[in-house]
Design a protein that fits this description.
The chain is an all-beta fold and 215 residues long. The chain contains no helices and 18 strands.
């Protein structure tokens, strides 16, 4: 049995609408702690489709990992193949999209869309932190501008419970360290911040770097 979830975007606001086929089964909608955004909690075997406000297929791109059976990425349909995890994605006219599977919703923190972040920029509000195929700590490249806010989160089927990133001083308001053991969740980009390679640590992996481009 599969559950079918259609995600429709209108005016750059995501609204999850669940439609059931076959035997009936409820779709759980949960509020992200401190974020106050309701999101569907998906399970392995669920089917997600993305539509524009006009009802046309809309492709999304998962980065760094996809939870879908489909080999295409971007894709307009996702047959969920994983048991749990956090999977950020990007799409036009979407704000801070992420697919939480099962009990991984707790890794999300508060995010506020303010500053100069464009709703149609394609930049993720969430920047995935992970270990690559060579077991090196990495983060998805991000492009930002002064005043923009974004947040790093552990990504993948088994998100790490111990990770951190360290950016150059003068990049984010108030601090340059984010991750486990800190109360810092959001980077607000400062005027004068420079493009850089910053340090990424994920427990069990070799420390690595990721790139932040400042426009």
């Amino acid at each position: 049995m599969r559950r079918v979830l259609t995600v429709v975007y209108a005016l750059a606001v995501g609204l999850g609408i669940g439609t059931l086929t076959g035997c009936k089964r409820s779709i759980e909608i949960q509020v992200v702690p401190g974020f106050n955004k309701p999101v569907p909690v998906l399970e392995k075997g669920d089917v997600i489709t993305w539509k524009t406000a006009d009802g046309y297929d809309m492709k999304v791109q998962f980065t760094p990992f996809s939870p879908c059976e489909e080999s295409d990425n971007p894709t307009a349909t996702c047959h969920v193949k994983v048991n749990s995890g956090m999977f950020p994605y990007v799409c036009d006219q979407c704000d801070d999209p992420v697919v939480p599977v099962k009990s991984s919703i707790g890794v999300l923190g508060k995010f506020q869309t303010t500053g100069t972040r464009a709703k149609t920029s394609g930049n993720p509000a969430y920047v995935g932190v992970y270990c690559d195929a060579q077991n090196a700590a990495m983060a998805v490249p991000e492009t930002a501008s002064p005043g923009m806010q974004f947040q790093w989160i552990p990504a993948g089927e088994k998100p790490s419970e111990n990770w951190s990133v360290t950016v150059n001083g003068g990049t984010c308001n108030g601090t340059n360290q984010f991750g486990t053991g800190t109360k810092n969740l959001i980077c607000t980009v400062l005027t004068g911040a420079k493009s850089q390679d910053y340090k990424v640590h994920v427990n069990g992996c070799t420390d690595g770097t990721a790139h932040l481009t400042i426009q």
